[in-house]
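Exercise: predict the fold of this chain.
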Amino acid sequence: MTHPYSSRLRGVLGVALGLLLSVGCGQQGASLDSTGVEGSQAAAISRTKPKVRIAAGLWHSVAIRADGTVWAVGNNSAWQLGITSVEDTATPVQVPGLTSVTSVAVGDFFSTALRSNGTVWGWGALHRGQLGIPTTTSPTWRQATPVQIPGLTGVVAVAAGDEHALALKSDGTVWAWGDNWAGQLGDGGDGYRETPLAVSGLTNVVAVFAHDQTSYAVRSDGTLWAWGDNTFGKLGIGSFVSNSPVPVQVQGLTNVVAVTASPSHALAVKSDGTVWIWGLTNPTTWDMALAPVQVAGLTGCSDVAAGDGFSLVLKSNATVWSWGINNQGQLGDGTQHDRFTPAQVPGLTTVSALAASDTHALALRADGSIWSWGSNHHGERGDGTPPLYATPSLVQGALVGGQMVAAGASHSLLLNSDTTVWSWGLNRAGQLGDGTTVRHTAPAPVPGLHDVKAIAAGGNKSLALLYDGSVWQWGDGLLVPTKVAGLSNINAIAVSDTHALALDFDNKVWAWGNNTEGALGDGTWTSRATPALVPSLSDVMKVVATSHGSYAILFSGEARAWGSNMNGRLGISTGGSSSAVPLPVVGVTNVVSIAGGKDHGLAVTASGQGWSWGSNVNGKGLAGSASSSPSPRPMSIQGPVDVVAGDDTAFAWDGHGILWAGGDNGLGERGNGTRNPLELPNPVTGISNGVNSVAAGGAHVLAILPDGTLWSWGDNSDGQLGRGVPLDAISPVPSLLD
């Protein structure tokens, strides 16, 4: 699943790997040119020469096996697995032509390997100079076969950021190449470089680290130096005002033995076993430390790894400790609850090395086995779990004859023919209504709910309308269905991640929830927890709730919209400002169906004409190649009879029984067997005889077919498809990388 934090930070990152370094105690150096106090730099480097067997990139992982060969798994869009025959794989493949490899490092879409003879080899994306060779060397922007990086010999360590790399030579110098927009190459400039060049003035280095667009080096005197991106104060220099294109000393740290970094924070271990953190220390509260501060409660530590908002520590007793964001099981503690105090990862012992990326982690154990946890959308854990559910298939254990489906961000609801409600998927906010926060992958009844007429879901919220006209809600912290006070005589319901709507038998609309964008339609921007009438709106036959927005169809066939007008999704012919009161959707009449996402709207008229407005990125407006527009434009599909939408998707079915899809497809939500982006609408595979009910969630889709069977496709991070093992592993599981 996604997390609010992820939308506020750049969603890509490279390797986050801390290394155990046996650097002895020493005094802080006075300048870049000072010499170490422990003796010769050659001796220091020899003692700390790292042997990195595992590395984690954005969506792929790499490991060295005992025979010195390299194996890779996960995403292969840039050929970073060293082969061209697959796009993604959950089963590791051998990188051809590499033997006697001692260390690996990976970026977002490229990989590097250090061989025992001191040469460095690279493969994958090369468009920003990541492979240390001219881009003209390859006829495309990617290179599958590992190539030796020219001019590099005597290398003892490698590191990789998103699109740049570092090499440490035996003489204590650091060499850099690749992207340089934040100064991460340390050459004083910001232009990318296709060939390695020594980082000016940096000597006596015993270890290098890189992540995102930031680089780090530990010198033989135990001081830590950093350069490049300083977002959130990742350089540890007491401010986050500007990046640094040259190495600067991290404040207050001496006797450093291990380092790691993420897009937002960095960690270091000192020789006394304490852990220090700087940057964004708590992404949920936006707490920052512009210089290193000690992490309370941690002693006896030897290594660190960091991902996007989470941290891992390896202790000298070979146990692993974690804290931070946990929406995809990154902490490995068997839950999906964020936690900002370190705690031991259960059941994980005898660990010798760690690696972490955006939302997944790897651990190498003393017996040579590799364990993994967290996300697996591209097979990056390497445990064989299928990473893609891009065609419809039956929901396991679903009852036949369901009347209606609803989908939240990562959970699913089914209204059964016996008027009971069934739920499955993510449950960290109680959205399954079973009194727990434990997810489950197969439909189970919501206790105590019966005589249900309709259901709705959005974000982490769930709603049920009973035949007696009452409305019940759960999720968003409510673990069991709770009656909504002040509502009666209700005929229809709708809910999004931000607010809820109820339509009564007097054809009036009630609204409650977040109102910062005017989604409650009462003329104010004040949020409220209890329902109130939407003024000046009557004769309503249908309501739809989207994130920070609302739609209504009147009995006259007119459509109304209010709330956020992101990218013109209100259909009022202008972009820009939100509206706190309902406004007419211009140019569309005789509307019988309406839907919307975070920045697009859609409608179907009684004559079978489809219209859409707002964004049409990836064809989410079902408008073919039409550009985005705040004014309604015709859909490119013929004869639609109904339409539904997710945040960034849209689905319409026509009179011939075909279900058409548009919008995002990164997780297979368009149901065509791929995750490729598309501009034109596509028919969903295997659905040709119509549908009884369709629901689009955050990135998954549910459909009840005319025979009463329930089908699903798209994201299965938390079991919301009801099709076997969830993609996100919340506890360590064996990887096949070893």
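Check your answer against the key: Residues 41-48 form the longest helix (8 residues).
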